[in-house]
């Protein structure tokens, strides 16, 4: 009797797994076609100076809307793209769209840097750097207006090789940010010589500020250490006035989050900027 119950559980579990694998395969095929058709889009989210409210940058974020109108969450489709080798094409497409948005902003008089997300697979790919470098020339955009974000976990995964790749971007004049900082393992050993201009404190610490004393300690430590090594420090995922005030008092300069603005398409962003006197 016991054996047959176990058997039923096993079958149910395995059906769920099969569904999940099916979904991933379907999405992978669809994503390949979507990339081929150039049909991903970007949204831009402002980064603001916590003491003045002034906009100091944007982050470009990939968006995928399927034919039925539903959006697939980036965490899901980026993971699929990384696992299937589609990520390099995806990120090149997103980079191009980011450059178009940046070009529009510049034409309206906004010379504000835009950050783009790169995967470690991109950095290690032989064509990615040249693609980015060629885009800078063809779009005629100053490299200082670009900021490459790579997650801490990925930048530490193959440290020496990734550092070498990042240094090529630095030589070109592009800034580097370490994304989701605090979630990786081995960065303390490397923080003194890591190739980066800024570090972004992971949203998980910011979101627990009201409820968990430990996140205060972690953030204070990141701020102290980061300043010691001259990084500019950005807090991600600020949603409440309390979080903003706490971070500002703790000495964090820059923030990003729904409290200030959600990621927006270029037209909404232009309206938002025009309405915001501080810019
Ligand atoms: P990320 O680079 O850490 O981007 C920040 C994420 O936090 C974005 O999620 C953004 O929408 C979200 N966010 C910003 N403010 C708030 C807030 O106040 N509250 C909450 N709850 N969330 C906030 P999104 O757009 O879903 O992207 C998720 C992740 O997917 C990104 O995390 C990044 O790692 C990856 N990703 C997105 N676009 C790209 C891309 O073009 N290329 C690559 N390689 N990865 C990307
Ligand atoms: Mg990012
Ligand atoms: Mg992040
Ligand atoms: Mg993140």
Outline the structure in words.
By secondary structure, this protein is an alpha/beta fold. Helix content is 53%, strand content 18%. The chain has twelve helices and nine strands. Strands 1-2-4-5-6-7-8-9 form an eight-stranded mixed barrel, surrounded by four helices. Helix 1 (2-36) packs across helix 2 (74-84). The longest helix has 35 residues, at 2-36. Bound molecules: ligand C2E and magnesium ion (3 copies). One magnesium ion binds next to loops. Ligand C2E binds at residues 45, 61-62, 73-75, 78, 91, 94, 117-119, 149, 179-180, 203, 236-239, 256-258, 263.
Helix content: 40-55%
Distance between the termini: 69 Å
Mean of residue pLDDT?
93
| Overall number of strands | 9
Strand order of the largest sheet: 1-2-4-5-6-7-8-9
User: How many helices in DSSP terms?
Assistant: 12
DSSP strand (E) fraction? 15-25%
- Largest sheet, described in full? 8 strands, mixed, barrel
Query: Which structural class best describes the helix and strand composition?
Result: alpha/beta
Radius of gyration: 20 Å
What low-confidence regions span 5 or more consecutive residues with pLDDT below 50?
Answer: none
Query: Can you list the ligands bound to this structure?
Result: ligand C2E, magnesium ion
Order of secondary-structure elements: HEEEHHEHHEHHEHEHHEHEH
Broad shape: globular
């Amino acid at each position: 009797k016991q054996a047959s119950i176990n058997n039923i559980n096993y079958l149910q579990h395995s059906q769920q797994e099969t569904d999940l694998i099916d979904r991933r395969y379907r999405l992978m095929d669809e994503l390949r076609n979507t990339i081929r058709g150039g049909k991903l889009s970007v949204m831009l989210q402002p980064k603001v100076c916590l003491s003045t409210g002034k906009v100091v940058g944007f982050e470009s974020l990939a968006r995928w809307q399927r034919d039925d109108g539903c959006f697939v969450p980036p965490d899901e489709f980026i993971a699929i793209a990384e696992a299937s080798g589609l990520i390099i094409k995806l990120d090149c497409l997103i980079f191009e769209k980011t450059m178009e948005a940046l070009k529009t902003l510049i034409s309206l008089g906004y010379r504000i840097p835009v950050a783009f997300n790169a995967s470690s697979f991109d950095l290690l790919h032989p064509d990615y750097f040249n693609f980015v470098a060629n885009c800078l020339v063809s779009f005629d955009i100053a490299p200082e207006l670009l900021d490459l974000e790579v997650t801490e976990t990925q930048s530490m995964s193959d440290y020496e090789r990734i550092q070498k790749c990042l240094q090529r971007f630095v030589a070109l004049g592009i800034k580097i940010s370490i994304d989701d900082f605090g979630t990786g393992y081995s960065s303390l050993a490397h923080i003194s010589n890591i190739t980066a201009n800024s570090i972004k404190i992971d949203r998980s610490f910011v979101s627990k500020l009201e409820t968990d004393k430990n996140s205060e300690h972690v953030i204070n430590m990141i701020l102290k250490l980061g300043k010691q090594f001259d990084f500019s420090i950005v807090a991600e995922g600020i949603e409440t006035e309390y979080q903003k005030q706490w971070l500002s008092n703790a000495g964090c300069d820059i923030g990003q989050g729904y409290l200030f603005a959600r990621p927006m398409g270029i037209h909404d962003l232009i309206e938002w900027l025009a309405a915001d006197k501080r810019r």
